[in-house]
Design a protein that fits this description.
This protein is α+β, with helices and mostly antiparallel strands. It has a single domain, classed as Peptide Methionine Sulfoxide Reductase, Chain A. Helices cover 34% and strands 23% of the residues. It is built from six helices and eight strands. Helix 1 (14-21) runs parallel beside helix 6 and helix 3 crosses helix 4 (105-121).
Length: 180
């Protein structure tokens, strides 16, 4: 990719975000993992305790000539409720927080500006609580978390939580999806 960039985004459970973003034009990869905590090489078990302070995140590698960081953030905000502090629906804990881990000053400014615009537009009735913090080490999640939705479409959480969000996203943003 000519203009490869990285974004690290947390929006609750990483399965939905990974599944949606891997379908978007310009995204080379979206990998589920953990970031923002204080222990090295955390496992899913570690982050589920809520004591490691890691968030479930997706590391997105994308071509900024095809997909801008701002557009990526617009997708991110459509895929979760950024007004829920340390939770998404029934998933509760700091590991499910809404967070943008920026990798450079331009990403920080873009994130802060977009959040301000969304607040002014009153897109949600409650204030946005998305954390905007400097990127920390990204740890890929265990292999069974990667491409989870495609590998486990009959799993109840996928059926009742992820797939309805994913299908709404795919319908709304069909013009931005990969065709292959």
């Amino acid at each position: 990719m000519a203009n490869e960039q990285i974004a690290i985004l947390g929006a609750g459970c990483f399965w939905c975000i990974e599944s949606a973003l891997n379908r978007v034009q310009g995204v080379k990869s979206a990998v589920s993992g953990y970031s923002g905590g204080h222990i090295t090489n955390p496992t899913y078990k570690d982050i589920c305790t809520g004591t490691s302070n890691h968030a479930e995140v997706v590391k997105v590698t994308f071509d900024a000539d095809i997909l801008t960081f701002e557009m990526l953030l617009n997708f991110f905000f459509q895929l979760h409720d950024p007004t829920q502090l340390n939770r998404q629906g029934n998933d509760v804990g700091t590991q499910y927080r809404s967070v943008i881990f920026y990798v450079d000053e331009q990403q920080k400014l873009t994130a802060e500006q977009l959040i301000s615009e969304l607040e002014q537009q009153r897109v949600w009735p409650e204030p946005i609580v998305t954390e905007v913090s400097p990127a920390q080490t990204f740890y890929p999640a265990e292999d069974y978390h990667q491409d989870y939705v495609n590998n486990n479409p009959q799993q109840p959480y996928c059926q009742f939580v992820v797939l309805p969000k994913l299908n709404a996203f795919l319908h709304k943003y069909s013009d931005y999806l990969k065709t292959d």
